[in-house]
């Protein structure tokens, strides 16, 4: 009996020791990490060389076998998607790497940090071939057909360089950050959105502004994202004002405005907060049907029909949408959100096709390969993950 009593005591002591851990888990749950979020991991490969949040990811366009990721640890890595094997580190950054991408032919990879240091590496030799320092970096993008890099900075300028020669041209915007930008498919023009709500279409060769949308034609708040359809005839802009504007890129005229009626916030909040609780975070055009998708911070994915200019479907997420991407050759749209999940939606029916989990924090960026068989995600949990999303209906 004595022995049994002692055993029971020991058991109780052990249980007591375990309790603080259990409590710690609960507090993490309260901070937004959902129950079971960490337990379920649908990913095939996890890349874990970053030691802080991973902000950006791009796949190499030519083979889709390499990924580049940049993070809050001031590091960027080029690694193999198939097994997470490190190819090389893009070293020398002294601030969070927020932009990273491969040139159209996968010959070069560029990495840019918040302070404005941009570096370009030759992928096959793993050698740095060019670097340049601008003001605080907002966004960066490669030209779709040439070794030309475009970037927007907090002083309102957009910069364009030939790589690796470094020949440079600047496009002077208003005296406020150039918050987002995109080179149009013709490679001759770029659309840039600014913090003051204006949008400009630039002629890249002449360095002149072809169209300026401001006032009623522009947005009332900072632009957050821009996109163009496949032939570049239509541009869509998204803003903190919760509007998405469809613009004819040739005439510079607004074709229509998609407004999301503000849904009441789930948690009662002070009036000031309520006004700021929503914004357009991401948008994009479908290649195979006249559809566009807009992702909002309140978790709404809106599918708009461009031919009738009407809302076709509203797909609700529990938490904010960070980014969305369309599949290249079907009416399927992918979303990643603050709850750490990737979801696939059928834009024709508005129904969710599948959901993939594996991160223990919000997803901050993601990329889909050309044949839509894999998704690579980056997260606040310091990891990048590769998910296989092959679907039986293909």
UniProtKB/TrEMBL annotation:
Alphabetized UniProt keyword annotations: Cytoplasm, Repeat, WD repeat
Residues covered by region (Disordered): 1-36
Stretches forming WD repeats: 47-89, 90-131, 185-212, 314-355, 356-394
Domain Anaphase-promoting complex subunit 4-like WD40: residue ranges: 285-363
InterPro entries: Apc4-like_WD40_dom, WD40/YVTN_repeat-like_dom_sf, WD40_repeat_CS, WD40_repeat_dom_sf, WD40_rpt, WD_repeat_multifunction
Cell compartment(s), UniProt: Cytoplasm
Gene Ontology cellular component annotations, sorted alphabetically: cytosol
Segments traversing the membrane: none
Annotated function: Plays a role in angiogenesis and cell migration. In smooth muscle cell migration, may act through the RhoA pathway.
Name the record gives this protein: Angio-associated migratory cell protein
